[in-house]
């Protein structure tokens, strides 16, 4: 049989690698990195290979399911929509728009068919109860960027190919393949950087794969980043090293900033962050002295009480050292399509606003149109005007992904109706009344909407479906528009399909490309290294970079208090990721599921000895009234006093249909996390540094 070669962009993580997929008839023969890809240049990780398993997974849903008398039965698309119309539409009519909540999960960011069309559904529904994985992840960075630069997605990324000093906090790109930084083959780029004499310093409670490959690892106390970052900013001012250079005329608030950080000398913050004052001062000096330097903070810095503050301080350091918007520093990508910071008037704008409404029960402010996902359960459980009675979950698995997931699961059972758009019957979708499946990634076209706005280099790439769509199976954008039309018949008008949408966005974009040109270029169009974009990129009302936004300065008394309260008593739980895993939903794929047990409790031998635990022993973890058992894996890579579990496990819940994953289910670390803990500014959940009790079981 003839072997065909296809080019396909991987939708499984933010690296967005180009793949070469060989097929014979309906079969995938091989998957490897596409050498001709102008952006990823042949790089691939094991998850890319797993697209074959995903395509072939017998558990992947191919037909809508309707729950009848507690059992899911296959149904036609028309039957499923009839059920939705019969049960969901009246709930909104009876109880109002806010009674219907939306939860959007991570894969939505990787599918143009979801990302570009969900806003239509949101508009048709008119609900204020909008939740997403963003408040488990990057909302702090979006908010700090919005406050400083005027748009939620104006996020600078390391210009790694020209950088010679990289200070990285709370990120493990060797495993995660990068986040809010689209950088396929981080390993290769970091190696090249060090070969040309560059230095990489990693701040992380664990000596991660990324730290092990770096020049220096600083084992910070979980949750201590605000103290460290304030110590560094303080030092820059204190030692006369704050020199924004070219940016000086584009910044506002440097005097207020200087005043605000005055109390946070490294000598005061050292104990609370676990990094001594001399090291902090040396780090600040190295940063200031480097010709091309960049500070990058990611997940570990966001999922903390001071997530927004950390995100702000990272960019404050980049600005004060003159490295923001400079080659080799922290630069702003310029996407070929869909970027708000390439549209409208350049140089100034309306900036961002929060708290245009608040959550009903706890009064948490809306941020970027969203409410904290940790408040979903209480909005369902609490009776009264505006109570959530129905839910649409789109590519989301909060039962495993959000703190106190088991409570969310119970709350979902109390809904009058739940709809899941999901490719699996899993821990969350099992609570639904109707499940509508999406396509296999190999049946879908691909163009990244979000990640070119975060890429280490500018590019435009498109990939066509590898296989034809099964007969009768809609694309997800069609499903979304059909849903939206149930609530607002005008919702679908003037909304083109993805190809027309991409073409339009490219033509209106800063390079004036067309989809035809992008399709014609084998491996995509390279648009070059990142270029300086200030002041053109700014969308703040002042037309300046806001160095000292009021809501951030208002957080500093809380930092003072936390500084006084930081203690080293007890164990703190942090998370971790594994190369052969992707959040909660890839454990059913044989190529990823094989190998050693991954859901283990990492622990320092010193802590284990004190507790009478040895390698392979079973530990009982207790937090917030929940008890879980996990096998212990000893490692000196952890800071003593810190234990680590991966998230996304716990595949032993009844009613899910994940045969392979259930064989080795692991435990749900989010069952141990407290859903009351969040960064009040961004609404982001605290996922790290949570107190946990451990004993031998
Ligand atoms: N403790 C702890 N918790 C965490 C994290 C952590 O570090 N520690 N990380 C957090 C982060 S960064 C994130 S982003 C969240 C993720 O949180 P979620 O987005 O809720 O979780 P995922 O595991 O990504 O689940 C995605 C869901 O989408 C479905 N899906 C996959 N592909 C498709 C598709 O093409 N179409 C449709 N319709 N559905 C699809 C999957 O079956 C699954 O149900 O988890 C967060 N949770
Ligand atoms: N293989 C794989 N790749 C993935 C995913 C996956 O699940 N598996 N998920 C994808 C998603 S949705 C995302 S958002 C990205 C995330 O990608 P990254 O941002 O790289 O996140 P992590 O790999 O979780 O690394 C976060 C690091 O923060 C550290 N940390 C924990 N607490 C603290 C703290 O208080 N301070 C500091 N400084 N560090 C701390 C942890 O030890 C960990 O090493 O990964 C993506 N890529
Ligand atoms: S690094 Fe990410 S995008 Fe690249 S192959 Fe792996 S999962 Fe896919
Ligand atoms: Mo994420």
Automatic annotation (TrEMBL):
PANTHER family: NADPH-FE(3+) OXIDOREDUCTASE SUBUNIT ALPHA (PTHR43105:SF9), RESPIRATORY NITRATE REDUCTASE (PTHR43105). It comes from Roseateles agri. SUPFAM superfamilies: ADC-like, Formate dehydrogenase/DMSO reductase, domains 1-3. This is Molybdopterin-dependent oxidoreductase. Keywords: 4Fe-4S, Iron, Iron-sulfur, Metal-binding, Oxidoreductase. Residues 3-59 form the 4Fe-4S Mo/W bis-MGD-type domain. Pfam families: Molybdop_Fe4S4, Molybdopterin, Molydop_binding.
